[in-house]
Design goal:
The structure holds 2 protein chains of 2 kinds. Chain A is mainly alpha-helical. Chain A has one domain. Chain A has helices at about 1-15, 20-45, 65-80, 80-105, 105-110, 115-150, 155-160, 165-190, 195-200, 205-215, 225-250, 250-255. Chain A is elongated. Chain B is α/β, with parallel strands linked by helices. Chain B has 2 domains: about 5-220, Rossmann fold (3-Layer(aba) Sandwich); about 230-290, Alpha-Beta Plaits (2-Layer Sandwich). Chain B has a 6-stranded mixed β-sheet with strand order 6-7-8-3-9-10, with helices on both faces. Chain B has a 4-stranded antiparallel β-sheet with strand order 2-1-4-5, covered by helices on one side. The radius of gyration of chain B is 24 Å and the shape is elongated. Chain B starts with a strand and ends with a helix. The interface of A and B includes residues 14 and 104 of A.
Amino acid sequence: MKKALIVLEKEWLELRLQRGLLLATLFLPPVMTVFGVVGFFAVGKIPASTIPQGGPLPPEFALLSPLEIGQAIVGRQFSILFLLLPIFIPSVLASYAIVGEKRERTLEPVLATPIRTWELLLGKILAALIPALAITIASASLFVAGILAFAVTDRVREVIVTPGWILAVVVDTPLLALIGVALIVVLSSRVNDPRTAQQFSAVLVVPVLALLFGQLAGVIVLGPGLALGIGVVLAIIAAGAVWAATRLFQREVILTRWR
Amino acid sequence: MAHAIETHGLTRKFDGRVAVDGLSLAIEAGTVFGFLGPNGAGKTTTVRMLAALIAPTDGDAIVAGHALGVDDTALRRSVGILTEQPGLYDRLSARQNLRYFARLYDLEPARADAQVERYLHLLELWDRRDEPVGTFSKGMRQKLAIARALLHEPTVVFLDEPTAALDPEAARTVREFVKGLKREGRTIFLTTHNLPEADELCDSIGIFQRRLLRMGSPRELRAGLFGAGTVVRVVGDAARYVPVLRALAFVREVRAEGDTLTVQLDDPDSRNPDIVDALRAAGARIRYVERLQHSLEDVYLRLVGGHA
């Protein structure tokens, strides 16, 4: 475990030296959150008569006024951001940490040390997961604070910051992040460019976007039951992905099979 | 003398293709062993097996007192390896690179820092210690990679082509450093394509092409393949002295070319005085007597060419 922390420390040291990557992954989410909160606040200040009406709405929006609906739609859209960030950030970080290391041929000297491969893998996974989850939770907290502060009514707060959404952020996003990192490890055995690995791992965004559009169209209601159900499915997928990643992340396999 | 590396029938196959075929060798502790062979001969695969990076398909080995496959983590702690590519983190400084590896080799932080400082001084990189490695020349990167292999003071060091692509000055620095490692009593397993370098550095050499073709000291390899011999230069035409030398029972072959006689025999050190006496008795005036020299390159090409 001690060596996993040494690996984690080195990964973060390298991350600090990559300004572009740091900005794109760790500073962009708070900026987007602030943008969302400002938009949410602004919608609450415009005259209700200027808000267009019609179109399919979720059932829980039925009793809301046009002004409340305007804020609720903006809030809902931005709330999905916190399910996307944990896929995007760790995938980018892990792709540089693993595919980048493979490309630079730095893995062999590391594997020649007395480190165990699970320690190396754990260090790299944690190095990608911890900042991603920390920034997601911090940004989500900022978002919730903004919603609580600027919602025009309590009803708007209740349709955005729902128990289902909170459960999804707390339970589902770490699992999505873990799947993203495991997928990067699996892809690392075949690709030599971090960007290629990121593009492949972007497929994970599709089910989250389906959830977003389903909610906006009123087809899906993200309640606690659904969030937990998704969590169970994700946990099974994550277990399989981690198993596959562990099988591929072995000295022998890395040195003789990775191309 | 104890053996630092011993292998018995070490074999490695990849999908049925044999990369290393029944390698058996014993390398004395505190010596430099040269492992020569063409590209794709299986040298890197052998080094990877001996450094417990990949497992053999068959056979066994003891490296630095550790049996392969028993406690590979302990084995890795006892050996150092310079991989074919330096494999350094370009964004990190020389010091950060070494500190990371020192800690992976289980050195406590204070000792890690001391060792990093020691090797940066030894390899003349101390002045550039806090600069990103990406700005280093090839020679500096190679020296840093060598430092990394030694941080934990291994008794057995694998150097995979340590002077490849280095300029002559940097290559000489590395060679001198390798000699220093030998003086410290470490065992060096050196793979190289640079035959004069192998001749200069190695106590024993193995010529390898999927299997071990020949092993011995550079001198033994030359003698074993081409036989020993003496070259005598005389005043005038050497051909007239050929019958004189052929009459000597210990002479195996004599050739004359201009003023030079090339004599093949088993033990030149003890027989050269007899050759000189016979020639002088026949009236020859002798300019030089010297050992018949074949280069290691001749040995290598004869062996590897014969198995290509």
